[in-house]
Amino acid sequence: MGKKSNTKARIVSAAWKLFYEQGYEDTTVEDIVAASETSKGSFYHYFEGKDALLGALSVLFDEEYESLRQRLTPEMDAVEQLVFLNRALFTMIDNTVSPELLGRLFSSQLITHGEKHLLSRDRTYFKLLQQIVREGQQKGHLRTDLSANEIVKGYAMFERGLMYDWCLCNGEYALSRYAGQMMPMFLQGYRPEEK
């Protein structure tokens, strides 16, 4: 990772940690600059302001996916890999992202006229899902009457739905535990029909 992307990642990481610990409203740009050990110039080079950091949550998620990629094993079939990724990400959300913050991210993505970060196909998230689904189809673990894109879209939509509901319920239950029950049932629909 280059120095520039490292600086941006430090700012994003520090900001989201502060948002979680002291709340979005009570976190200032100065707090973020101090916690990330960067400068205001660096901050404004990457972000127009604090609100621009909301879309950067996808950067943190993608960093998590990069580290999780190393933990996927060939013994896991495609559905097991997808369940594993979902549980690991949702555990991270349970422990580091408040429902209020995630809700702000969703609402910012709904009203933005620019890039919808959550839907960007350039994200590690979508590239990893595509790889898992394609390999799963080749190995006979997933249906082939649907395209890899259709399966990835369904999975991503279901994940967003679980997160959205968690936000609506103000995090009154553990997201990872609930998804641990729901995601395997959902993904069974993508297994090939037994003859």
Task: Give a verbal description of the structure.
The protein has nine helices and no strands. It has 195 residues and is mainly alpha-helical. It folds into two domains: 47 residues, Orthogonal Bundle (Arc Repressor Mutant, subunit A); 136 residues, Tetracycline Repressor, domain 2. Helix 5 packs antiparallel against helix 7, helix 7 crosses helix 8 and helix 8 runs antiparallel to helix 9. The longest helix has 21 residues. The radius of gyration is 18 Å and the shape is elongated.
Query: Helix segment count?
Result: 9
Shape: elongated
Helix/strand-derived class?
A: mainly alpha
Rounded average pLDDT: 88
Radius of gyration: 18 Å
Provide the succession of SSEs. Answer: HHHHHHHHH
Assign the CATH class of the largest domain. Mainly Alpha
Runs in which pLDDT lies below 50 for 5 or more consecutive residues are: none
Domains (count): 2
Strand tally, please?
0
List the helices and strands and how they pair.
Layout: H1 3-22, H2 29-36, H3 40-46, H4 57-69, H5 78-96, H6 99-111, H7 124-138, H8 148-168, H9 175-188
Helix pairs in contact: 1-2, 5-7, 5-9, 6-8, 7-8, 8-9
Short description:
This protein is an all-alpha fold. 67% of the residues lie in helices and 0% in strands.
Key structural traits:
195 residues; mainly alpha; Tetracycline Repressor, domain 2; 9 helices
